[in-house]
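Problem statement: downstream parser choked on a complex file, so we are re-checking the raw output for the NAP run. The parser issue turned out to be on our end (a line-ending mismatch), but while we're here, posting the original submission so the record is complete.
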Amino acid sequence: MPADPTPATDAATDAATDAATEASTDAATDAAPDVAPGVAPGRFAGAVAIVTGGSRGIGLAIAQRLVAEGARVCITARHADVLDEAAATLPDGRCISVVGRAEDPEHRAEVLRRVADEFGRVDVLVNVVGMNPVFGDLIGVDLGAARKIFEVNVITPLAWVQDLVAHPGLQFAERGGCIVNLSSVTGTTPSPGIGLYGVSKAAVAHLTRTLAVELGPSIRVNAVSPAVVRTVFSRALYEGKEEAVTAGYPLGRLGEPGDVASAVAFLASADAGWITGEVLTIDGGLLAAGGVA
Ligand SMILES: NC(=O)c1ccc[n+]([C@@H]2O[C@H](COP(=O)([O-])OP(=O)(O)OC[C@H]3O[C@@H](n4cnc5c(N)ncnc54)[C@H](OP(=O)(O)O)[C@@H]3O)[C@@H](O)[C@H]2O)c1
């Protein structure tokens, strides 16, 4: 009886697979010795991104990630010193920075003018700027503060989209542009004390879906919705009580800015080419566990 050929075939296949895996691992190691885990070098080669609120926290991590994957970026913020420090973390020629308030139309016009002059195109807009100056129940919230939160968190991302899409030289739609907005899990599940902020972030989620419907097929619009990420902005939510806060997260830790940056890079890339109108939760499992940020 002839021997069963399968084992030999399996062995040959295994050997070939091992050799191929080893070769491709060697090649990857040789080609990109300094590449951080998960980074896809070249995924944004030639592309240009605007990241509002890019001087620290989540915005800076997004800018760094996009640059690591080949993009050139324009980052914005109000404080020049911190913005300069952020820009200095990025390689020469890959970053410009423009100081100003995201909600100021003249600032937006200056950003688009500078980007057009220096890079000549925009492929990605990441609306990171957001604020929450009040703490307390909705029923007692100061309506002036409420209007300001909506101005910065909801109207301003819309204004950036309007200005960018209308810009005659940047050809955002023609390039198949991508927009990523910053929502929050507080827009899904009400969080005590930051209710109005949550309402504004729920509006960002629906702004995202509505823009996706209006701007397709040429422009994709998505959002990320993080739980607590360790930044200056959220410090009051975890400082001095991190162990207790972390207990509600199935993954056993709070988010880091890089956790959000990697999701934004995915949504802004061609890897997400058939995804629009999506609000991607990034929460270490918090909502699945029935938790509240
Ligand atoms: N951290 C979290 O736990 C968390 C969770 C869910 C969602 N988010 C959202 O993620 C986004 C970023 O949060 P983050 O934690 O990274 O905040 P952050 O550390 O406070 O950083 C905010 C960035 O935006 C800039 N900025 C703030 N207001 C601005 C304005 N009006 N005009 C221009 N730039 C402005 C800040 O620089 P300047 O102060 O110099 O202007 C800074 O670069 C926000 O939309 C936030 O709502 C955060």
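For whoever reads this later: Strands lie at 48-52, 72-77, 95-99, 124-127, 178-182, 220-226, 279-282.
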